[in-house]
Design a protein that fits this description.
By secondary structure, this protein is mainly alpha-helical. It contains 34 helices and 7 strands. It has a 4-stranded mixed β-sheet with strand order 2-1-3-7. A 3-stranded antiparallel β-sheet has the order 4-6-5, with no helix packed on it.
C-alpha cells in the first residue's frame, strides 16, 4: 500500500487519477464488438441485457428445452465426473510422493506443496500412460490400481507422519475447539478483514468453477479437438497401443494433455464417455492455475492480493473457455505459471543466507515443470523452457559473482544440471518417441535439419505456409492492432486484467518482482507476435501472469476514492463475466442437456455426414474412406482419413505415380484396379467433403509466405481430388449413386467472389441449379459397388 486514509492532496489526486483510468478503460473495453460473434454483438449489448441473460439461465423461455434438459440429467455426468476426480486425486497423490523426494517438505507451505504435487503428478501420470501405450499395455487395471495405491499410501503418510497435513489439520481443529470453549463470549475476536476477503472471493469463484465443470462435461464442437486432441487419443485406445499414425501428423506432437484424455478412456472402457472424463480432468487445469495465482499473491503481497488475483483469473472468460475445450493451452498455462512460481521460489532461496547450500531439489522441480510445459506443446520451449532456465541460471550466476566463487562454482554446476535433468525427464520421452518413429525428435518441425519419415519438402512448405503470419504483418500498424486485440478487443477478455495490471507498478512491496513479471509478460506477447501465426488462444498462457499483476494492482491503495471505484469495477466485471460465459458467445452452454441428445446434436453441428454414416448399416469388417474431412471423432465405424498436411490417400490409391510430374497430372489407374484396391481395403463407402476441401484450398493455397521460396500459389489440398474423377468412377460402375443428404447444399450466391471463382475454376460440376437458384454441393457419399 502506498496511500492511507487522510492522505495529502497529492495522494488523493493520485487515487482519483487511478479511478479515472479504470473508468476510461472500462468505457473503451465495452465499446468494442466481439470479433468472433455472429451476428456482430458488442460488449455493451451483452451488459445492457444481463438481467435477461440471468433470467434465461434460471428459467429458460423455450418450453421444449425442458424435455431434454434439466438437473434430472445431471446423474448422466457422474461416471465421467467420478472418473476425472479419481484420476485427479490419484495424480496428486503420485505427485505428492514424488515431490517429497525432490524438495524438503518444510520448504513449502501446505498449499504450495499440494499445488506442485498436482503439477508433478499430472505430468508423471501422463508419462506413465505414454510408456504403457508404447509397450502395448494400455491396461485399465494397472493404471487404476497404481493410482489407487498411490492415493492410499499418500493419505497414510499425511495422516500419520508428523508433518502430514491431515494430522496437522486435525490438531489445529482440536486446538481451536478447545480455545473457543475457554474464551468468554464477551471477549470474542472480531472477524478479520482478510477473512471477509477470503469468504467473498472464494464464494465469487464458485459459480465460474461450476460453469467450467458443466461446460467441460458436454461433447466438444471444436475442430482441433475432434480432429486430433480427442481423435488421436481415441485411435490409441482402439488400437490398444501408442504408435505412429501417418495419416494424422498432429498425433506426433508432445501429447501430455492428450494422454490424460486417453487415461479417461482407459478407465471407463469407452472412448466417448472417457473423452468426457478426460475433458473434465483437463478442466481442472483452470482452477489449479487460479490456485497457484492465489498462492503466489499471498506469498509476496499478502492474502488480499492473492484472493483478488485468483478471482480475477477464474472470472476471466478466457479461463472458462480454455477450461471447457480440450485444448493443450490449459495444461501449457498451468505449467507455465507453475514453473514461474518455482523459479521465483529459487530466487528467494538464492537471495537468502540459505542459498549457500545446494538447491538441487528446487531446480529439479523447476526443470520438471518447464519440461512439462513443452510436453504439452512445442511452443513451450520458447515460452517456458528458455526463459525459465535462463532466469534461474542467471540468478545463480549473479549469486556466484557476489559470493565465494570457488565454493559456488561446483554448486552452480550441480544446480544447473538438476534443472536440465528435470527438463529432459519431462519432455525427453516425447522427443525420443519421435526420434525412433520418424528420425526427427521434433517431427514435423525442423524438417530441413532433421528430415522425417513420411514427410517431404512440399509438405514442409505447406506446413510453414499454414503456420506462419502473412508477409508484411510485422509493421508498426499491425503491432498496434495486435496490442489492442490482446488488451481490449479479444472476445473472452476480462476488463480487470489489463485495466488493473498497470497499477501494480505503483506498489512498493516487491517492486523488482513486479517489474520482472511485466518483463516476462512482454516476452510472452513478443514471442507470440513474432514467432506464431497469431491465433488468439496462443497468448492465453499470459493470462495468469497478468491476473497476478492485476490482483496486486487492485491493492495498491486503500484510499476511499480508489476503494469505492475498485469495488464497483470488480462487482460490475464479475456480474458481466458470469452472464457472458453462460451465453453461447463463450461456447456451448447447454449445461444440463441430456447427453444422449447432446451426442447427436453436437456431432450434427460439426459433421452431419458422420452422423448419417453412423446410421447406415456398414457391414462388419468394412470401413469408410473420408476425403477432405479429418474431424472424424464422432465416427462409430472404422474410417480411413488424413489431415490436410499428411500424404494424400487418394493420390496413392488411385493415381499412377510419374517421376517429376505433379500429383495433379498423374494418370488415374484403370477403374477395375481402383475397385479392386477399394475392396482389398474393405472400403464400403467413399465420403468426400467438398466444403472442407474448398476451405483448405482457400486457406493454404493463397497464403503468401516467402513467395520467392514457396511460390505465390501452391496446392492447399491435393490437386488430384476433383469431382470429375468420382463422376468417371460412377460411370464405370465402381461407385454407386450418391447417398441422399438433407444438408449437402449451400447457397452459391452467398459465397464471396473469390470463393465463387475458385469453385467455377476448380469444380464447376459441384454447382447445381434447383428451382432456379444456384447451389454448391458441400459433400457426397458414394457406396462402393
Amino acid at each position: 500500500m502506498i496511500l492511507r486514509p487522510g492522505a495529502n492532496w497529492i495522494q488523493q489526486r493520485s487515487a482519483a487519477a487511478a479511478a479515472v483510468w479504470i473508468v476510461l478503460f472500462f468505457i473503451a473495453f465495452f465499446s468494442f464488438d466481439l470479433p468472433n460473434s455472429t451476428p456482430k454483438t458488442s460488449r455493451w449489448d451483452v451488459a445492457s441485457n444481463l438481467h435477461f441473460l440471468y433470467l434465461e439461465l434460471v428459467d429458460p423461455l423455450d418450453d421444449d428445452a425442458g424435455k431434454n434438459s434439466g438437473w434430472r440429467f445431471f446423474p448422466q455426468r457422474l461416471l465421467p465426473l467420478g472418473t476425472a476426480l479419481f484420476l485427479l486425486v490419484g495424480a496428486g497423490s503420485l505427485g505428492g510422493l514424488l515431490l517429497r523426494s525432490i524438495v524438503p517438505r518444510n520448504r513449502l507451505t501446505l498449499g504450495e506443496f499440494l499445488f506442485f504435487a498436482f503439477a508433478v503428478g499430472l505430468s508423471a501420470s501422463s508419462l506413465l500412460v505414454l510408456c504403457c501405450g508404447l509397450s502395448g499395455f494400455l491396461s485399465r487395471g494397472f493404471i487404476g490400481g497404481l493410482l489407487a495405491g498411490c492415493t492410499i499410501v499418500s493419505l497414510s503418510i499425511e495422516t500419520w507422519s508428523r508433518e502430514g497435513w491431515i494430522r496437522g489439520a486435525a490438531h489445529r481443529l482440536r486446538r481451536s475447539c478447545t480455545e473457543s470453549n475457554s474464551i468468554p463470549a464477551s471477549h470474542s475476536k472480531e472477524i478479520p478483514y482478510e477473512s471477509i476477503i477470503r469468504v467473498i472471493c472464494g464464494g465469487a469463484c464458485l459459480p465460474f468453477v461450476l460453469c467450467m465443470l458443466l461446460g467441460a462435461s458436454l461433447p466438444s464442437t471444436d475442430f482441433d479437438v475432434k480432429a486430433y486432441h480427442l481423435e488421436g487419443a481415441k485411435e490409441f485406445f482402439q488400437n490398444g497401443e501408442i504408435a505412429f499414425l501417418p495419416h494424422n501428423v498432429y498425433t506426433s506432437f508432445p501429447f501430455l494433455t492428450e494422454m490424460l484424455l486417453l487415461e479417461g478412456m482407459m478407465l471407463t472402457g469407452d472412448w466417448w464417455v472417457g473423452a468426457l472424463a478426460g475433458q473434465l480432468l483437463l478442466m481442472g487445469f483452470g482452477p489449479l492455475t487460479g490456485w497457484g495465482v492465489f498462492l503466489a499473491g499471498r506469498r509476496w503481497w499478502g492474502p488480499a492480493a492473492g484472493w483478488l488475483a485468483m478471482l480475477i483469473h477464474l472470472s476471466a472468460p478466457w479461463t472458462y473457455r480454455i477450461s471447457t475445450i480440450a485444448y493443450a493451452e490449459g495444461g501449457l498455462t498451468y505449467y507455465l505459471f507453475a514453473s514461474l512460481f518455482a523459479a521465483l521460489l529459487i530466487r528467494d532461496r538464492l537471495n537468502a543466507e540459505a542459498a549457500l547450500q545446494p538447491i538441487r531439489g528446487e531446480c529439479l522441480l523447476a526443470g520438471l515443470l518447464a519440461g512439462s510445459a513443452m510436453a504439452c506443446k512445442y511452443p513451450g520451449l520458447i515460452s517456458v523452457v528458455i526463459p525459465i532456465a535462463g532466469f534461474v541460471k542467471a540468478m545463480m550466476y549473479l549469486v556466484a559473482r557476489r559470493r565465494c566463487k570457488r565454493f559456488l562454482s561446483r554448486t552452480v554446476i550441480l544446480n544447473a544440471s538438476a534443472l536440465g535433468l528435470g527438463i529432459v525427464l519431462a519432455v525427453g520421452p516425447w522427443l525420443m518417441k519421435n526420434l525412433v518413429e520418424t528420425g526427427n525428435p521434433v517431427y514435423p518441425l525442423m524438417y530441413s535439419l532433421f528430415g522425417g519419415v513420411d514427410w517431404d519438402a512440399e509438405m514442409n512448405a505447406k506446413w510453414i505456409r499454414g503456420h506462419s503470419t502473412k508477409e508484411g504483418d510485422y509493421s508498426i500498424n499491425h503491432l498496434a492492432m495486435n496490442i489492442i486485440d490482446v488488451t481490449l478487443k479479444s472476445d473472452w477478455l476480462s476488463p480487470l486484467l489489463f485495466g488493473l495490471a498497470p497499477l501494480a507498478l505503483l506498489v512498493r512491496k516487491q517492486r523488482s518482482l513486479i517489474v520482472l513479471l511485466w518483463i516476462y509478460g512482454a516476452y510472452l506477447f513478443g514471442t507470440w507476435w513474432l514467432l506464431t501465426h497469431r491465433i488468439d488462444r496462443f497468448w492465453v498462457p499470459l493470462i495468469p501472469v497478468v491476473s497476478l499483476l492485476a490482483g496486486v494492482g487492485l491493492t495498491w491503495s486503500d484510499h476511499r476514492y480508489w476503494v469505492r471505484t475498485a469495488t464497483a469495477a470488480v462487482v460490475f466485471a464479475w456480474t458481466f463475466n458470469l452472464g457472458f460465459v453462460t451465453t453461447g458467445l463463450c461456447g456451448n452452454n447447454a449445461y444440463l442437456l441430456d447427453l444422449n441428445v447432446a451426442r447427436i446434436n453436437m456431432a450434427n453441428i460439426t459433421s452431419p455426414e458422420i452422423v448419417l454414416l453412423n446410421h447406415i448399416e456398414i457391414p462388419p469388417g468394412e470401413s469408410v474412406l473420408s476425403i477432405g474431412d479429418a474431424e472424424v471423432f464422432d465416427a462409430e465405424f472404422p474410417i480411413n482419413y488424413h489431415t490436410v498436411f499428411d500424404q494424400p490417400i487418394l493420390d496413392d490409391w488411385w493415381g499412377v505415380p510419374q517421376p517429376g510430374v505433379p500429383r495433379s497430372q498423374w494418370p488415374q489407374r484403370d477403374p477395375a484396379e481402383i475397385h479392386s484396391e477399394l475392396r482389398e481395403r474393405n472400403i464400403a463407402y467413399v465420403y468426400v467433403n467438398w466444403s472442407e476441401i474448398l476451405r483448405y484450398r482457400m486457406t493454404y493455397r493463397y497464403k503468401s509466405v516467402m513467395p520467392e521460396r514457396f511460390g505465390e500459389k501452391r496446392p492447399g489440398y491435393t490437386e488430384y481430388v476433383i469431382p470429375e474423377r468420382f463422376r468417371a468412377l460412377q460411370r464405370a460402375g465402381v461407385l454407386g449413386r450418391n447417398v441422399p443428404q438433407n444438408q449437402a447444399f449451400a447457397d452459391f450466391d452467398r459465397f464471396p467472389g473469390d470463393k465463387q471463382k475458385e469453385i467455377e475454376d476448380w469444380a464447376p460440376e459441384l454447382i447445381v441449379t434447383l428451382d432456379g437458384k444456384k447451389y454448391f454441393i458441400t459433400s457426397e457419399i458414394f457406396p462402393v459397388r
